[in-house]
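Need the bound structure for zinc ion, inputs here:
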Amino acid sequence: MAVAGLLAASPTSSAMPDRPAAADVSDGTLAAPDIPLSNVKAHLTQFQSIATANGGNRAHGRTGYKASLDYVKAKLDAAGFTTTVQQFTYSGSTGYNLIADWPGGDPNQVLMAGAHLDSVSSGAGINDNGSGSAAVLETALAVSRAQLQPTKHLRFAWWGAEELGLVGSRYYVNNLPSTDRARVSGYINLDMVGSPNPGYFVYDDDPAIEKVFKDWYAGIGVPTEIETEGDGRSDHASFKNVGIPVGGLFTGASRTKTSAQAAKWGGTSGHAFDRCYHSSCDTTTNINDTALDRNSDALAHAIWTLGTAEPLPPGESYENTTDVAIPDNAAAVTSALTVSGRTGNAPAALRVGVDIKHTWRGDLVVDLLAPDGTAYRLKNSSSSDSADNVITTYTVDASSETANGTWRLRVQDVAAQDTGYIDSWKLTF
Ligand code: DTR
Ligand code: CA
Ligand code: ZN
Ligand code: ZN
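Answer from helper R.:
Posting the output first, comments after.
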């Protein structure tokens, strides 16, 4: 049983920690949990209370916006996310973006999901866009509850000043170094996902993201339509403009639901999808629970599916299958691999496949040692990760290391009562 605390060191490499003991689906990804609608609605109640206590809105430059951000940030900090508040100035007021990184995953493949947190000044903005903000928040909290350890690095974002012209998200993208932009494998946007007379629209941008959503909705027997008014209309625009694959969900704003749409989705034809769009009546009464629930679950499905897919192509491997016992709460052990016949340095995406059989894997600290002794942290200990075994592939930027030589996997059990062994490990160049 793990009794030691967490090791302080943060991973020095692009660790892709082991996967939880969750259900695999047929394509090798992990099945997402159901997102509790009650949790999502509890966030909306908080946003409503915040608006009521702050002049009736949560708009950029008003106290209700920062109070909304503080609420979301506190939830994420408590759930183990690494949060960052990014400030900007617009129309004479300070604006704020909230970025939340889930530790681990491949930093060269960052999967993002976001929603604008600001409302218009005329109302509480519960559907626009408390709904998207709450769905993204609850999905992030579900990642924490599951202690998900996906192959990609997960990053969640809440944008400021969208209503004034996509200001916060544009500021984020414009200030993201080009090397970091290149690492963003996709951005998923949720803006108005609980409209009272809902349609089910999927952004028709990146085909892979679109397919994930359309397949999920098909799986629950709900037809979808391509979101046709979205281009440039919400926070995905800035990501799309720099070539980042984008996607998203939308339940409609002031446009009118047609009779054909009402026939497939229910609701009222000839009426707006959201008659309270940008109005003071956009309160907690302005939400369709089924739409909010479905879109929250659809987002979780996309994060789990896109976040845990095994992405990497085959390479040349070296493997050691000799078992090495790991003594309980004692000194580290190593297992060696000699690489020869290669030229130059190791790659920037050196794959380290590990298969460690060990109860309460949170006891374990795992490092890769390069031939010159340089240590790359693959996995930290965790006092809360009680699952068994570390069976995963980490990606390490080993481009500063010569490829040939003796590489070692170093494993230490830093807490009492659980034991195990290195079953096998391999390097793939
Ligand atoms: N601009 C968004 C509402 C909006 C209008 N059309 C779309 C299409 C896709 C996403 C969002 C929207 C706002 O008022 O926040
Ligand atoms: Ca749900
Ligand atoms: Zn709006
Ligand atoms: Zn919006």
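Comments: The chain is about 25% helix and 25% strand. The domain at 37-307 is CATH 3.40.630.10 (Aminopeptidase).
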